[in-house]
Amino acid sequence: MANSNLTNAKTAKNDEFYTQYHDIQKEIEAYLEFNANAFRGKTILMPCDDPEWSNFTKFFAQNFERFGIKKLISTSYAPDSKNYKSNYQPTLFEVNDPQFDENKTVKNGKIFTLTRDKSGDGKIDVNDLEWKYLKGDGDFNSNEIKILRDESDIIITNPPFSLFRDFLVWIVEANKSFLLIGNMNAITYKELFPLIKENKVWLGATNFNKGMYFKVPSDFVYSSTYKFEREQNGEKVSRVPGVCWFTNIDHGRRHQSLPLMTMEDNFKFSKHKEIKGKDSYIQYDNYDAIDVPFTDAIPSDYDGVIGVPITFLDKYSPEQFEIVGTSDNGLVSDEYKKTPGLTKEFVADYYKDGGTGAYKEGNPTAGFYENNIAKMAYKRIFIKHKRPIK
Question: Do 28 and 143 belong to one domain?
Answer without folding.
Answer: yes
